[in-house]
Amino acid sequence: MKKLRLYLFVLLVVNFCFGQTLRQQERAILQRIESLQVEEHPFYDSGLFPSQRYWFKNAAPVEDNNVFTTASIAFILRLIQERLESPDSILTSIINKSVSNFHKYSNRNGEATYNFWQTSGEDIPFPNGSRLLSRKAHRLPDDYDDTSIIELAKGDEISAMKVREKMVSYALRDNRKPVEQTPSKYKNYKAYEVFFVDKMEQQYDLVVMCNVLTFVFRQGYGLNSVGVETVELMKQMVEDSAHMTRPDAVAPSYRTTSWILYHIARLMTFDNSGLFNDLRTRIVADIQLNLRQTDSEMEKILLYTSLYRLGESPKPEILARILKAEIDSFTFFQFKPTQLFGMLPVMKWKSQAFNWTLVLEFLTYSQMDLMLE
């Protein structure tokens, strides 16, 4: 009985301390993330996080100053911050420095949307690319994904309403056509697309839809007809097991089942109306199956985090040595520019800072000691 009381006392102390601040391991990783945030650099603006872009595995990557990396890190850290009982100064500093850059990626015409690359200053698509790639004619249009993630990272209710109105008005435009760049079964849904553009064929991306609805749910907006169609399309894709068997077709910017499951699980935590409750058992089972199939430790991080989010109590098995090696190479975003340049290979992006942030997120749920430092 005496030992039990001692154990309970120690457990309470640990929980209290964690509630007040990050544990030693998590803080060391947070400081590493902070050290990767740019202070002064000839290419990156202060406050951005570096990422690298490459086509071929063995080819030398080039630096890419996209906003997606920085906004994604800031949003995940904001979620971690909200789970702490007291604010953490490092977290707050990283988020604020990140947010200070977002206006540089805003719509060129003052619309409430954002681009993957900077629209002010040195406005160059595919930065550090060839002369062909970096021509202004090859600019990417603004997109729903960056716009949603930026608003989630900002947490700004005033700008969020303008973004919401733009998303809805564009989705309901009169000249909208069927989405051709998706499996034929899904092209006639009127769900949220990927781009704000009329001069190129649209896409559907299951992860982008997750991020748009996460923005909608987190802000407390109700579902309109486009939102309803988006929920129905997402459920149909899961019912068809397309996220398991054809991830590159239903999520062309992410292309892996683990990323899709991670985003679905994250979305479900904001679904206060229970719209996705009927998918929970299926998604948990798919995550567990994917855990048995993957040989990537970073993918396991995503999947275990997803199980924790869904209220499960997994017993993670992570090979720390392999995980640490993957942090430099794990891909978080992909793009196949078939419409712009013909049949080229898939372009991929990676970022140490983003991958460390995913590890930190996992550790705040699992409280494992991975001995990464």
Poorly predicted ranges: 6-20
Number of strands: 4
**What overall form do the CA principal axes indicate?**
globular
| Spatial strand order of the main sheet | 2-1-4-3
- The tally of helices reads 16
The arrangement of helices and strands along the chain is HHEEHHHHHHHHHHHHEHEH
Largest sheet: 4 strands, antiparallel
Mean pLDDT: 89
Strand content: under 5%
* Helical/strand content category: mainly alpha
Distance between the termini: 37 Å
The helical percent reads 40-55%
Q: Rounded to an integer, what's the Rg over CA atoms?
A: 21 Å
Summarize the structure.
With 373 residues, the protein is mostly helical.
Secondary-structure map:
Elements: H1 2-20, H2 24-36, E1 52-54, E2 62-63, H3 67-82, H4 89-99, H5 144-154, H6 157-171, H7 206-219, H8 225-239, H9 242-245, H10 247-250, H11 257-268, H12 280-293, H13 297-309, H14 320-326, E3 331-335, H15 338-341, E4 347-350, H16 352-366
Antiparallel strand pairs: 1-2, 1-4, 3-4
Helix pairs in contact: 2-16, 3-4, 3-5, 3-16, 5-6, 5-7, 7-8, 7-11, 11-12, 11-13, 12-13, 13-16
Verbal overview:
The protein is mainly alpha-helical and 373 residues long. Helix content is 50%, strand content 4%. The protein is built from 16 helices and 4 strands. The chain has a 4-stranded antiparallel beta sheet. Helix 3 packs parallel to helix 16 (352-366), helix 7 packs parallel to helix 11 (257-268) and helix 11 (257-268) runs antiparallel to helix 12 (280-293). The longest helix has 19 residues, at 2-20. It is globular and about 55 Å long. It starts with a helix and ends in a 7-residue tail after the last helix. Mean pLDDT is 89; it is low at 6-20.
